[in-house]
Known about the structure:
Shape: globular
Helix content: 55-70%
Number of helices: 7
Strand content: under 5%
Number of strands: 0
Order of helices and strands: HHHHHHH
Amino acid sequence: xxxxxxxxxxxxxxxxxxxxxxxxxxxxxxxxxxxxxxxxxxxxxxxxxxxxxxxxxxxxxxxxxxxxxxxxxxxxxxxxxxxxxxxxxxxxxxxxxxxxxxxxxxxxxxxxxxxxxxxxxxxxxxxxxxxxxxxxxxxxxxxxxxxxxxxxx
Length: 153
């Protein structure tokens, strides 16, 4: 799931991000490493090569525009993360590096998603999604009953 876009302006304090900015900014590199380390924990298969992958991703960030139409950064990450995960990863790290937040907790508290993130997980760590179809059907039935009553009156 991809976070919603926040425009670059003086109010949001989000700014455009380029590889050159990362190349010359130690603090931005530190923020990138912090984000990468956290995200790589999600992928069990990266555990043994985590530091290599971190440096590889950092090299990509320093040389390739994450939002380029060629999708080069996403292509380079696909071998390690898979196509869909690479796309989401590029989107999320780009959002974090554009943000004014210095730590992940502040960013996580600010960022918004189209749908709420899951809060309940099963024993394998997979999200448990509540069945909302029953509730929706009841709402539809109730609203049609109200409409029928209005017509009768």
